[in-house]
Design goal:
Elements: H1 7-19, E1 24-28, H2 30-40, H3 49-57, E2 75-79, E3 97-102, H4 104-112, H5 118-128, E4 133-137, H6 144-155, E5 159-160, H7 174-189
Parallel strand pairs: 1-2, 3-4, 4-5
Helix pairs in contact: 1-7, 4-5, 4-6
Length: about 210
């Protein structure tokens, strides 16, 4: 997680990964902690990350608690300042990396190979090891510099997935729109999910297939 607005997207992706039986290495940037506090009122603390994560994932996109009952036993948390953490090395086993949401500052850092924190370092490692990297950029409008950074990431093999909800899937709640974006992120990563209804090629039939 980087510091862009859109923490509900990250929550939806995390829940779906855990539901799919995937183990997760979680990195929360310093800026993302501020965004999480602003958008949810939750302080994400290193010493109490399990409790804070469980509280956060238990909320829906509307911020109301108790919407979900998350099991976070499959999560391993790494502080963003720990450059000696497992994900900082190419020998650390993983299937790929998702940056959700991705701020323009994070996009620039990864595109330029700055590795100023664990999030950026892990992304650089993911690219050099030719593993899937999915970047869910959440910003509008985009200036030319950011667009060039996104093209550089695409050229390096990353999948750029803008946080653009689709409305053809029959959304009736905010959570539906959030889950659509999260589902597209997971599609890019090759992770099976049931977060949104897929288009089936027939008018009026977008809701028929999951």
């Amino acid at each position: 997680m980087s510091g862009a607005s859109g923490t509900p997207y990250a929550a939806s992706v995390l829940r779906a990964l855990l539901d799919a039986g995937e183990s997760v290495d979680l990195v929360v940037s310093r800026a993302s902690r501020l965004t999480l506090l602003d958008e949810t009122g939750i302080s994400f603390r290193d010493a109490h990350w399990r409790e804070d994560l469980r509280e956060w994932l238990g909320r829906g996109a509307d911020g109301k608690p108790g919407a979900f009952a998350p099991d976070v036993s499959g999560v391993r948390y790494w502080p963003a300042g720990d450059l000696g953490a497992g994900p900082s090395s190419g020998s650390y086993p993983n299937k790929g990396m998702l940056i959700v949401p991705a701020s323009t500052a994070c996009v620039a850092g990864v595109a330029l190979g700055l590795s100023k924190d664990l999030l950026q370092r892990a992304a650089s490692v993911t690219l050099k090891e030719r593993r899937p990297l999915v970047v869910a950029v959440r910003e509008t409008p985009l200036n030319g510099q950011t667009l060039r950074h996104l093209v550089a990431l695409d050229d390096a093999g990353a999948s750029v997935v803008p946080a653009s909800p689709g409305f053809y899937a029959g959304a009736t709640h905010i959570q539906d729109l959030v889950d659509f974006v999260a589902g597209r992120v997971l599609d890019a990563a090759g992770v099976a999910h049931r977060l949104y209804r897929r288009w089936n090629g027939e008018l009026g039939g977008a809701n028929a297939d999951r």
